Amino acid sequence: MITLHYEKIIHGVTDRRRGCLRHVSLISMLLVTLSLLSVQPSAAQCTYHNQAFSGYEGINYNLYFNWQFVWIKAGTASMITQPFNYKGKSAYRTSLVTKSSTKVDRYFMMRDTIMAYFSPELTPIYYRKGAREGKRYYVDEVWYTYPGGKCKTTLKHLHSDGTRDKQEYTYNTCVSDMINSFQRIRNYNTANWKVGHAENVSIAGGSQLTKARIVYKGKKQVKGDNGVKYQCLVLSYQELENKKYKEIVKFFVTDDKRHIPVRLDLNLRFGSAKAFLCSIK
Q1: Do 271 and 4 form a contact (C-beta atoms < 8 A)?
Q2: What CA–CA distance (Å, rounded) separates 277 from 228?
Q3: For the whole model, what pTM was predicted?
């Protein structure tokens, strides 16, 4: 939900291969937290009605990190969604690019690109993340197929040392990646939600699913870095740890049909981070 790994500036590289992506990166975490209802009753129902976007859309964010009680700008992120022809079929492509600021580059350079393809009904097709983080470069890829009413994922991982891994998993439910999940939450119907309303979430992570939930916290007016004030829904993403739910991130999305994330507050293992919308086209 990209990916500025703030903790790595101080504590080195965090292992992200289990798919949970907790404390991995700002926008990656953002997009994982937006994995609402990414698991459906069957692959035949691995679709979602899209009314949040059509045609071209570009969203830009400023990223901040709390460094010794001082908030510093840590980088930028841009996300572009547009119609695309994928192997002769109509689809959408969302690309997400993140880079760290000059100040952060002194400690840990980030140049990450994430790309995902999905059908107009938001059915996942393909996902790729290429990340250069410090001296480390890796690539994650996921292909989706739907044989026999199930959801099959083929995952490939290119390590910084040049070695490769490949795994395949088949689910009875529909699973999705971080970008596809992000686009799904934007089509949530929250009209009848009351404070405290919770939605259970299952996030694909290799052969296991991570239990999580989204809790509605009410509404709040939020000012973006573009100077515009937005009426937002406040949503808390929580993961189950030791039989208790722990808040990973709180995000503020516009209270309309588009549900655009305007601000995100992330609870990292060593500090906190924020992302603010700065422009949208």
Answers
A1: no
A2: 10
A3: 0.72
